[in-house]
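Hi,

Apologies if this is the wrong queue. I'm a grad student, and the batch job for Large ribosomal subunit protein uL10 from Pedococcus bigeumensis produced an output file that my downstream script rejects. I'm not sure whether the problem is my script or the file. Here is the sequence I used:
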Amino acid sequence: MAKADKAAAIAELSDKFRTSGAAVLTEYRGLTVKQITDLRNSLRGNATFAVVKNTLTELAAKDAGVTAFDGQLVGPSAIAFVDGDPVEAAKGLRDFAKANPLLVIKAGVLDGKALTPAEITKLADLESREVLLSKLAGALQASLSQAVYLFAAPLSQTARVVDALRAKVEAEGPVADAAAPAAEAPAEAEDTTAEAPAAEATAEAPAAEATADVAEGGDES
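Support response: The file is valid. Your script probably expects a header line. Output copied below for reference.
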């Protein structure tokens, strides 16, 4: 490859590293052209699967500040440059590798952070962005519905309680007024009873004095 072509290839790869949200390095030894094409098609919309030259890729990665592939660029290499959902891209690579064990996932980088093959598998196990957004939308809708209920329910319940209390007061009002004199009557009776002994004591006092006078008169005679 001419020097100018190498420089152009390095610049292109370097730009892919910079503009991609993630990149996954694989080894495709033994895969057929059809299998690689099928893999490209399965990743379409989320990633671009490109066969690369190790030396040029190493220089491009270094130029872009990517160190996740250091020491990994050996054998026939291909990189999935992710420009869509990294979870979906990881799922596509994982599923294809399960069906075609000749594809080996070697390393990855996500937002500048190096990923091991195990971490890429964990990434593939996550729910996709669309599923998460759908769940978030459902949660928000449920929260709004609950909020409407929480705001509306106390108002309607309060109205029902107030109406019930008003009806009760209106129904019991006349009965309470009629019962008031009856409640006062026993108190007056109790007062009359309490005064009776005092009257009796007053009535008995002259009789006692008269008896005393009679007794004294008897002694003098």
